[in-house]
Design brief:
The chain is built from eight helices and seven strands. It is an alpha/beta fold and about 250 residues long. It has one domain: NAD(P)-binding Rossmann-like Domain (Rossmann fold, 3-Layer(aba) Sandwich). It is globular.
Length: about 250
């Protein structure tokens, strides 16, 4: 069993859930957080048979709650070596003028403010480790524009750029920083984005053979497992069936 702890935000589904299971299989004690207490409890019960697990119901948007979570960590869980900033979401897929301002604020508060809250609180702990990793979940939307991405893409572009800037500040400290940028993945992500419309979510992935949560968990574990002198700066990954298309051109009509 590892003596170093892994902290995963948004551990109740998708990449976070798959990553928690994979790190547990490899013997890493876990701190798992999320807003759905029942799921956290269930996951904790499942993984506690393998490794020590500390779970904390947490909304990363709440800076005070994040600070209290870190301040009250049991001593045996304070040696955090890996931070997986996974908590995030997209809301809506229509054009900007049809979007809900509340949805925009929720994406910014979660994808940007929440990630900053957690990272800022954990930097003092991470900098004490001889080898540490911050793995931030960005998106291909941080690099490539598409209709309906507006604030979601903007928030993930922040994650990617913040990761690079943080890497500059932490160079020489032993803390590695990675921006992981997945493409089309079949998780609850689209179900949340489409406000619970299961049919719309299913149709998005039909015939695509998309990335799966376990695929991203494997990549996260690989990044964290690199030798101390290796930093994976950024990694963009898509399913083979997904690629770039032509630029949109709007033509004048008579």
């Amino acid at each position: 069993m590892s003596t170093s702890t892994v902290l995963i935000t948004g551990a109740t589904s998708g990449f976070g859930l798959a990553s928690a299971r994979l790190f547990a299989e490899h013997g890493y004690p876990l701190i798992i957080t999320g807003r759905r207490v029942d799921r956290l409890q269930k996951l904790s019960d499942e993984l506690s048979a393998l490794v020590p697990v500390h779970y904390v119901p947490l909304d990363v948007r709440d800076a005070q709650a994040v600070s209290e979570m870190v301040a009250t960590l049991p001593e045996s869980f304070r040696n955090i070596e890996v931070l997986v900033n996974n908590a995030g979401l997209a809301l809506g897929s229509g054009p900007a003028w049809e979007a809900s301002l509340e949805d925009w604020h929720t994406m910014i508060d979660t994808n940007v403010t929440g990630l900053v809250n957690v990272t800022h609180c954990l930097l003092p702990i991470l900098r004490q480790q001889p080898k540490a990793s911050i793995i931030n979940l960005a998106s291909v939307a941080s690099n490539w524009s598409y209709p309906g991405s507006h604030v979601y893409g903007g928030s993930k572009a922040f994650v990617a750029q913040f990761s690079r800037n943080l890497r500059c500040d932490l160079a020489g400290s032993g803390v590695r920083v990675t921006s992981l940028e997945p493409g089309m993945c079949e998780t609850e992500f689209s179900l949340v984005r489409f406000k619970g419309d299961q049919e719309k979510s299913d149709n998005l992935y039909k015939g695509v053979n998309p990335i799966r949560p376990d695929d991203i968990a494997d990549i996260i574990f690989w990044i964290a497992s690199q030798p101390a002198h290796i930093n994976i700066n950024s990694l963009e990954v898509m399913p083979t069936s997904q690629a770039w298309d032509n630029f949109k051109v709007v033509r004048e009509t008579d």
